[in-house]
Amino acid sequence: MAAGSLTRISSGVLPMLALFALLLVSLSLLSDATHNSERFGQMYSMLLLINAAALVLLGALVVANIFGLIRQQRMQAPGARMTSRLVVMFVILAVVPVSIVYYFSLQFLQRGIDSWFDVRIEQGLDDALDLSQAALDVRLRDVLNLTIQIAEDLSDAPPATVSLTLYDHRVRSGAAELTLIGGDGRIVASSSSDITDIIPDQPPSEMMVLMRNRKHYIGLDPIGDSGLYARALVPVLSSRSDSEVYTLQAMYEVSERFSSLADGVLSAYTRYKELSFLRTPLKFSYSLTLSIVLVLSLLAAIWAAFHSARRLVAPVRDLAEATHAVAEGDYSRRLSVASEDELGFLVRSFNDMTRRLARSREQTLRGQQQIEGQRAYLEAVLANLSSGVVSMSADSVVRAINRTASKRFGIDASRFLGKELAFLSEQHAHLAPFVDAILRHRDQGDRTWEQEIALPGENGHQILMCRGTVLGGKGKRAGGLVIVFDDVTTLIQAQRDAAWGEVARRLAHEIKNPLTPIQLSAERLRRRYLSSMPADDAELLDRATRTIVNQVDAMKKMVNAFSEYARAPSVHLETMNLNQLVREVLDLYRSSDLNVEIVEQLDAGNDIIEGDAGRLRQLLHNLVKNALEAVRDTPDGRIVVSTCAVNTVETGQVELCIEDNGAGFEAAVMENIFEPYVSTKAKGSGLGLAIVKKIVEEHGATISAEAGASGGALVRIRFMLSSDHGSVTENLA
Amino acid sequence: MFAQARLAAHPPRELFAVLLLGLCSCLPALSWAGHPGIVKLEGANTWRSDGSDYLHAQFKIELSSGAEEAVENGVPLIFELQIQVVETHTWLWDSVEIEITERRSLQYHALSQTYQVKDLNAGTQGNYRRLDDALTAVGQLREVLLTDESLDDGPSYSIRLRGSLDVESLPTPVRLIAYVSSDWSMVSKWYKWPLVR
Predict the structure, then answer these.
(1) Total number of domains constituting chain A
(2) Whether residues A466 and A506 fall in one domain
(3) Could you read off the pLDDT of A567-599 as tens digits, one per residue?
(4) Are residues A110 and A47 in the same domain?
(5) Interchain contact, A136 vs B111, CB within 8 Å
(6) What share of chain A is helix, strand, coil (3-state, %, to 5)?
(7) pTM
(8) What is the ipTM of this complex?
(9) Of the residues A454, A487, A520, which one is the last residue of a structural domain?
(10) How many domains does the structure of chain B reveal?
């Protein structure tokens, strides 16, 4: 976070310029302060602190920038490597000349400061000081002698006149001040030329020690702004008997001319000595200032290098990022044109490119959407088509197969997509005629063909009307084949039924009409001539007319059966319980003395169907009668009527089975057992099972005949369960 | 003879020391290898007269070899003698009631071969042949008026005393070295004792 804020600070131009200006001012003041100027000398520490703080701040900025750059390089951020190269180049460009200047500046500094000092100048100043001291020594000796004389005069002076004597001597000797000091340091008497100075100057304690030892003292005393004074201390040896030792202190002003000359020499000497002493610290402080300037300049240069490199690299980095985004598929990226130079031209070109790419992609997408829409439309059409559609490529690979085709075939055809057509017949043998027909037409080179194909099924043959067309044009679909087929089984069956119905209607019309006159004529002949004829003839007539009447009767029944078969279906489907109906019908047969065991095996649930109870009752009667007739000659005749639920792919079904242990169906008639006039019985119209099948079809059910487990006949009828059998069950309950 | 002056505001020396420590890594070569300087209190006493408290104190000052060399070469040294009268609290920090800073300068006069000691507060001056006498004069506090009637009698007070070389008054080139070199660190601890009234 701190590094981020530092980077933000470092990215602005104004803060940068402001900091540079502050640094320049601060460095300039620091340089001035190093010269020990009065104005900035006191600020030196503060300036040093400010510059040190600036140093730390700039250092932190540079370190933050370096770390940021390293991090960007590790993350392989766009432009990081170029920024690094530019920064290194700028830093080298800055460091090399600055370092050279620094080195030579340091050399000049050292030598320049050393050149200030010369042994001869130092010697000359020492000599000048010695000369001044020597000249002063002569003057000091004179004033000491003068003071000794005054002290001798004072030694004989009576105590009462000491003050006056002092005054006389001061005036005569030209002394500035004469003071007589007692042995205990008290001032006995004093005379001064300065009337404002009422307190005489006290000698230092060390001098009083000299006096107690009765020694003379002469020395120079610089007194404040008053200039130089010669101080002489001489013991006053009294001739009187008391042992107290007095001291005479005399202060003589050094002449103004002499004093000013001595001051000049002293000032130059002191300054030179001070500078000489400060030589090493001065070198150090100048070097330090120069080093601070160097480091600050270098850090500022590095910072500026980062700033400049970033500004230079920014458009290139933006371009790199935007190019990466375009490569990732983002065509909405636009860059702002910041300059009018070559980079600006590049950015404008990039923007044009992305705009065109975006437009092109949009058009492609729109086209794809249209194709997808058409494809979806085609699929919807195919899916809802009542005809089955199969398309395959030129190399017989299945490309499309619609839902109706799957339904017609009774398979999940989608898993054959992308596989060869032959694989379809390998997996489902009943489709072999379909596949063989297609392949045969393809091999023959038929471009358009039409064929009726019969597929074997559980409920008889399934008749498909197939039409094949070879796809033309160019492209990958060329040479492919589209097969459209319809299930015409029901249609053919309906046509057959209609034909039979027409035959039956005509037969009934043509045959039934003459039957009644024939029967009536035979009965009249019988009534008229039977009683009047001889016995032999009468017997013949009786047999003949009975035969006529019976046969005509049989013929009537046959014609009625035809009429029944040809009758237009008028079923009224309603929800009903199959098991209940079966029980009712079977109960009728149980009561009769037939010597046949009738077994019920009814499934308790799933017996609600949509059916016409009257027609189904007829169906059951036909089947049970057939079974009874089949087991009539069988010793242990047994009929099993059962219902059971059958789960198929589409919906639930209930299966009604009637099985007997009679002779069973003959294999020759098994194929057409439900066709009219196909029967294994000696008697019968041959319409029983045909009517059964008709009723089954009226109910949308299926029927099949096969050999039972005991070798007898087994008829299976499958009804669709009612969709609301649950609610009906409740109603029935 | 004496005057009261508030302590001059100077930047904290410790801060400079820390900052310059990094910059002046070459300083060992510039440091003087000699004896260190000493500033310590030799004796002090207070007395009360006419409702006012007075102080007399004597610091023992020994110049370090660097400072002594500087004086011999005419560089003036300024010493500060800080006197504080603080009100002492049991649970709180002491509060400074009165603060006096005596500033004394020491300079060698080559022509007269004497050491000049100036009282910068009073403007008085003394000349000494020997450096020891001059340093004694520098470290001497005579009859310094501590308190007058304006100070309440109720609270308990203490005297705090400290002597030091004023590094800030040194010539700029020397100042750099003085910040970091122990050779120039001449400062006594704070001496504290209760003011008996």
Answers:
(1) 5
(2) no
(3) 656 778 888 888 888 988 888 887 666 678 888
(4) yes
(5) yes
(6) 60, 15, 25
(7) 0.52
(8) 0.73
(9) A487
(10) 1
